[in-house]
Amino acid sequence: MEYSEGDVIVELALIFARPDKRIVVGIGDDAAVVTTSHRTVVTTDMAVEGIHFRREWSTPFDIGRRIVAANLADIFAMGATPDHLVVAISLTGDETLDWIKELAIGIDQEARKCSVTIIGGDVVRGPVVTIAVTALGRVGTPILRSGAKVGDEIVVTNLPGWSAAGLFLLENQIDLANLVSSGHAQRALSQYRAPLVAYEDVPFMRFAHSMSDLSDGLLIQGEQMARASGVKFNFDSQLILSHPDFAELNSLAQEVGEYVWDWIGAGGEDHVFLATGIGLPGFEIGRVEEGEGAQISGLMQEPKGFSHF
Amino acid sequence: MEYSEGDVIVELALIFARPDKRIVVGIGDDAAVVTTSHRTVVTTDMAVEGIHFRREWSTPFDIGRRIVAANLADIFAMGATPDHLVVAISLTGDETLDWIKELAIGIDQEARKCSVTIIGGDVVRGPVVTIAVTALGRVGTPILRSGAKVGDEIVVTNLPGWSAAGLFLLENQIDLANLVSSGHAQRALSQYRAPLVAYEDVPFMRFAHSMSDLSDGLLIQGEQMARASGVKFNFDSQLILSHPDFAELNSLAQEVGEYVWDWIGAGGEDHVFLATGIGLPGFEIGRVEEGEGAQISGLMQEPKGFSHF
Predict the structure, then answer these.
(1) Dihedral-angle region of residue B125 (phi above 0 means left; psi in -120 to 50 means alpha; beta otherwise)
(2) In the CATH hierarchy, which top-level class contains the domain A145-297?
(3) Most buried among A300, B102, B173, B240, by the most CB within 10 A?
(4) What is the pLDDT of residues A97-145, one digit of tens each?
(5) CB contacts < 8 A (A, B)
(6) CB-based contact (8 Å) between A80 and chain B?
(7) Which is the CATH superfamily of the domain at A5-139?
């Protein structure tokens, strides 16, 4: 290790520095001070090397983008607008300063997409790279998981499953050169490494009755929202089949011998937004009904379960 | 592992739950929502097993208390009042649910001392236990590191060095039963495992020109404040010698063959508050002068350096 903690902090502060009238005290004191509205939204996420990412599978730029995307998606899923991030990182000491800077640039780039500034952090030593990101935002009336009503349309901002497909390709060391659907495979890999989150679609969801992002997958997240709302989430496989991206994802699944509904129903980490309401934008994939739980109706075979822990 | 991520979250939510009118949306949605004042203070800290704590040296209760104490001290060091915490934890899977609950109770107990509520978090898998805590608070005019003025008295809320002494005893496996100063050794161990932070003294520091908490040790933190303020921090060894606790710490140091000024000058993690100003409460240990850097004047031998990274 050819650098000190102080060197790292100086480099990160340079990468994260930018004019921001919301900041009263930035990086460098015991804590940061920001101007806030009456209601502040807060969420925290931790990503651990070997569990949530691997250095041989993703660039540091993508690792940084991905953890921030996951974090910001949680803020957007409340119907809120993110403003600031703090980032705590443990480093093993065998990373080059360039690797660390690229990670920071990935963090910063994803934040910039949403006009979010990194205002503080912590850099420590650890046996693996671990990144904990906490986002702060503002909201008027938050959109909760518990607001779904019987009769609501269920919509998604994109087809979920691409990130799970990318993870499958990496875990099974599939050689993309041999695939007919190598273009779709590239899309899956890219979505796994650093998901493209449809931040820009969320403002149009402001009349949603309930909303969440699909960090844990459609069925798990649907069931959580159903339980919180005291209703049933009935996803309709025929509606999902008609999504313009379904054919691509399905052809990739078939070529590698996987069941596409495992990816769609149980794969997480796409950070697609799942919302319910009437006349919402997004792609309709089902209805809220009386009852409990979540299911994809019309399938011959149930999707596999999925848990990240 | 006889429990799921869901079980852990349910247990933690029960431990952290309490009536709090500042909370609009608590644990269980994509993010928490709290009411805030115009200015929000934010800080984050990460503690890694094997680096910042060891399971064989500290109870989970103390591990939880210590990381929260470090975090809240940063908020207080801004002249601010903490309100809320979010906590991200990686677990290896070989912890019992009781161990995890005791950790959460330690986190909660330290937070309760300051009327702080845990409003959210993340629980993931990792190769070691890693805890990232982010605190939110409110402030009118923050007290910065950069406000020290030539002529200011430098004061501390307690004598620093006890935590470093405790770490020394643990690292060198000193048998307390054989020590004449075993009572002082107990105090050192206790301060290392979960520092008693003088939160209640901080409101009396509201007229301080500059303030920080001693997470990194007196000389390092003094130098940081001196640089930020464009002044010199001159700590006076004669003043420090007259602190009512000095004799105890010194007798322990002498008995174990250590130089007490290494502990006082370079040991961190006591989270003693270091402030400058005129007529402040606390114990005076020096003066702000023209010049640069930080030193303890009147010593025959310089204290060793100390860096946590």
Answers:
(1) beta
(2) alpha beta
(3) B240
(4) 999 999 999 999 999 999 999 999 999 999 999 999 999 999 999 999 9
(5) 240
(6) yes
(7) PurM-like, N-terminal domain (3.30.1330.10)
